[in-house]
Fold this sequence. Notes:
The structure is a homodimer.
Chain A: H1 3-16, H2 23-34, E1 39-40, H3 41-49, H4 55-67, E2 71-75, E3 81-85, E4 98-101, E5 107-109, H5 117-126, E6 127-138
Parallel strand pairs in A: 4-6
Antiparallel strand pairs in A: 1-3, 2-3, 4-5
Helix pairs in contact in A: 1-2, 3-4
The structure holds a DNA duplex.
Amino acid sequence: MNARSDIKEIKNAIRAVGLRATPARVATLRLLRQATSPMTHGEVAAELDENGVDKATAFRNLNDMADAGLLRRAELGDHLYRFEELRDGEGEHDLHPHFLCVDCGSVTCLEEVKLTVGSRKASEQVGEVSEILLRGRCNNCQ
Amino acid sequence: MNARSDIKEIKNAIRAVGLRATPARVATLRLLRQATSPMTHGEVAAELDENGVDKATAFRNLNDMADAGLLRRAELGDHLYRFEELRDGEGEHDLHPHFLCVDCGSVTCLEEVKLTVGSRKASEQVGEVSEILLRGRCNNCQ
DNA sequence: TAGCATATACAATCTAATTGCAAATGCAAA
DNA sequence: TTTGCATTTGCAATTAGATTGTATATGCTA
């Protein structure tokens, strides 16, 4: 898939949730697609700043796209919102956990980490789990 | 137990972690002891403001007492730090997961919740996990 | 391509949280 | 009890993430 068809696909994805496919939004989604882990408001804004996109616009777009269901807005416990694309199939109920390094702040998606069956039952007694977060020190920071 | 002996006990607890038992700290700990759920920086500061305690002092004391191991500083997903007293026995090294209700802020310890064996291996590839957090909406808030 | 609702840039604002520093105070030792 | 001094406090300024107001510009549908 070349860059042009990528952009077309991105525009379609944005329009599919009822938003206009503006350059700032295309750039935002492209950025999130090539990122390997969720990006903060600030990280996205800093990148888009090079394209002349205003910080407030970047923030509004992230929030709007999250509200529209295109992105997931995650709060990992360090007072920063992080955004990642919500691919088809991954609904709201997708529970793939995140690992947050308390030293460097890096975030890793842990697709394959699951709770044991008994654990899921136990946690359901308490409430409906919407997010699983592991915190610790990543290998680079040991 | 009367108020006087309460205060004596509170002062002892503060001194036990190597801090001076100042009026502001005594008031802070007393407040947290009578609270039924963790309090935010701002809530504590607002209460102590009536005693003439400065906001910066309130914030510093909460952080200092948390660093000293007297309080737990929790992040419940709404970008506010919340503090609660860490009673004896609850150490820093308790690795059992916690469930945080994003609505009411209640915290539940999930002693029995575990990761699958494969998940532990997978997460160890990323780093050393020191905390497991489940977030969602508790049964009271459904 | 014209019309208009949506989106943007720019600037101001808000709130949580932190920091610098001189003055005040807890508390341990004399 | 008093003294010495490190710790703590008050006050003010500041940082940083995030949000909001508004006039202008632009996507996109008819």
